[in-house]
Known about the structure:
Structural class: alpha+beta
Strand content: 35-45%
Order of helices and strands: EEHEHEEHEE
Number of helices: 3
Shape: elongated
Low-confidence stretches: none
Helix content: 25-40%
Number of strands: 7
Amino acid sequence: ERLVLREQAPLFTPEKVPAEALRSALAWQSRLADFAEAPLAAVVERFNARSRVQLVLGDPELGARPVGGTFALDESEAFARLLTRDGELVAESRGDAVILLRRAR
């Protein structure tokens, strides 16, 4: 349940909240995120919202690449290393706060 503030009496009214709505509302707090065939651009956006280290896609078409799994959103460097394991992508550090992801040449 949650309490709803009203402008007239009664000031607070308890209201039932479905479990899924509550999970969705609190999802931003979790450091873990599950992705199922999500576009890489959307995954990068989630990482960038939670991490000091920002991921940048060097090739725009990479944004459509599907990504699946559970990742710690505050571990951008680890995620970048994982993306490079198949040899198709390269992760280049640009200073201490940017990782450029691009296709391997």
